[in-house]
Amino acid sequence: MKIAIICFDDFTDLDVFLPWDLLNRVRLVGGIADWEVKLLGTAPTHVSMAGLRIPMHGMVEEANTFDAILFASGRGVQPLFKDPAYLSRFQLTPDRQLIGSMCSGALLLGAFGFLTGKRATTYPTVASQLIAFGVEVVNESFVNNGNISTAAGCLAGQELSAWVIDSLMGNEMTQRVLETVQPVGQGLEIVM
Predict the structure, then answer these.
(1) 144 forms bridges with which residues in the sheet?
(2) Residues 57 and 21: beta-carbon distance below 8 Å
């Protein structure tokens, strides 16, 4: 299984690193050798909103053949969702791929037409922009529409990651992964 997290300059750190960590735990905790998570971008490195420069594992076009694709959020989404050249680099197929977004990354899903006529969530400051794509924006941390999901609020990255793991590996693996990050003394309550 191949999972992509799509990065760009000015991405929100936690919206990349929380899913990165959780998704990689399938391989590390679950012992699934053919589980691969990659950070993909349009340059060899991208710089987060907090100023952290990180290397990419490949270019965004690789995502077209992956099993799951998650779009990060941050200020860097604003020019990208309006850029036909950037959008044309993706040839995603929701009938065979899981496609999700964190916060403002939903604007990219809106630009692709994946959310038209559907319920979705996003960060409140960009809700009106997402509505312009014919989306019913709801005040929820996670919204699933089959193979398309949106999450809002950095810690909702746990729900988005759990959706990917559950969809590709099942609930038992999801529970195993999430148990490794739960605060000590708190039970696990996420059921997909």
Answers:
(1) 149
(2) no
Strand partners, 47: 53
Interhelix angle 157-169/171-179, nearest 10 degrees: 140
Cβ-contact 41, 8 below 8 angstroms: yes
Give the orientation angle of helix 13-28 with respect to helix 157-169, to 10 degrees.
30
Find out whether 121 and 72 touch, Cβ atoms under 8 Å: no
Burial zone of 107 (CB within 10 Å; 0-12 exposed, 13-18 middle, 19+ buried): buried
- Euclidean distance between CA atoms 106 and 73, whole angstroms: 8
Joined tokens for residue 97: 């791929």
Task: Find the distance separating the first CA and the last CA of the chain, reported in whole Å.
Answer: 20
In this predicted model, what pLDDT tens digit does every residue of 59-110 receive, in sequence order? 999 999 999 999 999 999 999 999 999 999 999 999 999 999 999 999 999 9
Q: What is the pTM of this model?
A: 0.94
Q: Beta strands 148-151 and 98-102: pairing type?
A: parallel
Q: Between the CA of residue 28 and those of 11, 25, 37, 68, what are the distances in Å?
A: 25, 5, 12, 18
